[in-house]
């Protein structure tokens, strides 16, 4: 399809190129030499011919050939390359940038700028090893100008895609103070390393990495959860509970995510009364459906179904939710069975049928950045690739 914008830019670039050439020529050359600059090169007419015959690719190729590289129009070439890349034609962009690098007219700074663009082309083409080589070459020098910072960003992004967590950290950590928004991804990379270490039974190393993750991002729910699970696996339920208390304080959106681990910790210590007390304080902090249901279940086991119905009813009056209603119906059905009814009330069963159907269709987790939804919790959003943005959905239809 004819890309009018690209062709306009190319023609303008050629016109500027000739204009510059003409000006320079008029400064230093004779009339005869000057007149040769005023005559457009043959490629210009060939390109125009392609354009008129609606052959845009051939026209673009010919125009690029016509546009000579000099120190004044390097930016135009780079802009053309970017235009191709954004059109999804990174191979053409790479050709333009490789052609530029072959020219002796570039200053060292322009050379690095073109290398950076070529690395972006290689990333778009999926040729990551060549992109990495170029980027590592740029960041080798100790200066910290905008070009090197961009190169570091690109390289860190590449290493993250390849799950080379430690390599990404090695590049990022020395400059993290200037990039505070990268603290959260860095904390998750440390969690990734810790998970690998847990699998390899290096628990003390894992613990060290998780504590480092919390130094970088005190709201990293994942690090608190992993630390709590490590403590449970070591048979230490009090430290596990302390980590989960910190999680609830620093990352309250993840209270629903921590409830299974919290239950395991209290069961390990056989502290059922303390567990109930902990759930009650969590309900006061955030009356979330999943906390209310777990508290209700605890009351049912300890004080019976009627007490569970009474307290759950009161809590749901404060924080109504579909999941809470579904749980309350279960309690009513159990209550009727305990009264000696062989079959529960048909109306209750009908209500239960509807709440279940609605709950089955709900979204359980959602990315706060791009809106991606998923059933199980993902620490990196598969859609926007941000870390720690997916949280349990709360509210009337949520957890
Ligand atoms: Zn997302």
From TrEMBL:
One of its GO terms (biological process) is regulation of lipid biosynthetic process. Its main location: membrane. TPR repeats lie at residues 40-73. Fe cation binds at residues 367, 370, 381, 384. Coiled coil: none annotated. It is a single-pass membrane protein. InterPro entries: LapB, Rubredoxin_2, TPR-like_helical_dom_sf, TPR_rpt. SUPFAM superfamilies: TPR-like. SMART domains: TPR. GO terms for molecular function: iron ion binding. Residues 365-392 form the LapB rubredoxin metal binding domain. GO terms for cellular component: cytoplasmic side of plasma membrane. It is found in: Cell inner membrane. It holds the Pfam family Zn_ribbon_LapB. Keywords: Cell inner membrane, Cell membrane, Iron, Membrane, Metal-binding, Repeat, TPR repeat, Transmembrane, Transmembrane helix. It comes from the Bacteria. Residues 22-399 are cytoplasmic. Modulates cellular lipopolysaccharide (LPS) levels by regulating LpxC, which is involved in lipid A biosynthesis. May act by modulating the proteolytic activity of FtsH towards LpxC. May also coordinate assembly of proteins involved in LPS synthesis at the plasma membrane. Belongs to the LapB family. This is Lipopolysaccharide assembly protein B. It comes from Vreelandella azerica. The gene is lapB.
């Amino acid at each position: 399809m004819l890309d009018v914008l690209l062709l306009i830019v190319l023609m303008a670039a050629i016109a500027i190129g000739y204009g510059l050439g003409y000006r320079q020529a008029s400064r230093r050359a004779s009339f005869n030499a000057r007149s040769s600059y005023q005559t457009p090169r043959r490629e210009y007419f060939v390109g125009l011919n392609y354009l008129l015959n609606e052959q845009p690719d051939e026209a673009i190729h010919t125009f690029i050939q016509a546009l000579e590289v000099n120190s004044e129009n390097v930016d135009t070439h780079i802009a053309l390359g970017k235009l191709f890349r954004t059109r999804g034609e990174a191979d053409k962009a790479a050709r333009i940038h490789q052609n530029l690098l072959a020219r002796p007219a570039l200053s060292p700074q322009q050379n690095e700028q073109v290398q950076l663009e070529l690395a972006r082309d290689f990333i778009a083409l999926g040729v990551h090893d060549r992109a990495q080589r170029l980027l590592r070459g740029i960041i080798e020098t100790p200066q910290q100008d905008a070009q090197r910072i961009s190169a570091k960003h690109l390289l860190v992004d590449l290493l993250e895609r390849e799950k080379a967590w430690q390599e990404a950290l090695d590049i990022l950590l020395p400059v993290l103070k200037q990039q505070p928004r990268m603290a959260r991804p860095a904390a998750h990379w440390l969690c990734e390393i810790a998970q690998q270490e847990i699998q390899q039974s290096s628990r003390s190393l894992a613990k060290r990495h998780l504590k480092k993750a919390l130094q970088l991002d005190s709201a990293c729910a994942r690090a608190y959860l992993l630390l709590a699970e490590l403590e449970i696996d070591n048979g230490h339920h009090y430290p596990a509970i302390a980590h989960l208390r910190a999680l609830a304080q620093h990352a309250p959106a993840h209270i629903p995510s921590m409830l299974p681990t919290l239950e395991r910790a209290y069961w390990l210590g056989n502290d059922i009364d303390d567990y109930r007390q902990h759930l009650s304080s969590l309900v006061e902090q955030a009356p979330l459906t999943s906390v209310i249901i777990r508290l209700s279940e605890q009351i049912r086991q300890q004080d019976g179904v009627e007490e569970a119905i009474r307290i759950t009813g009161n809590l749901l009056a404060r924080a109504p939710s579909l999941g809470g209603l579904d749980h309350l119906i279960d309690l009513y059905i159990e209550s009727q069975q305990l009264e000696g009814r062989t079959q529960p009330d048909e109306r209750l069963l009908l209500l239960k049928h509807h709440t279940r159907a609605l709950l089955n269709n709900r979204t359980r987790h959602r990315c706060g950045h791009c809106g991606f939804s998923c059933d199980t919790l993902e620490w990196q959003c598969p859609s926007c690739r941000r870390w720690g943005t997916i949280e349990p959905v709360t509210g009337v239809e949520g957890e």
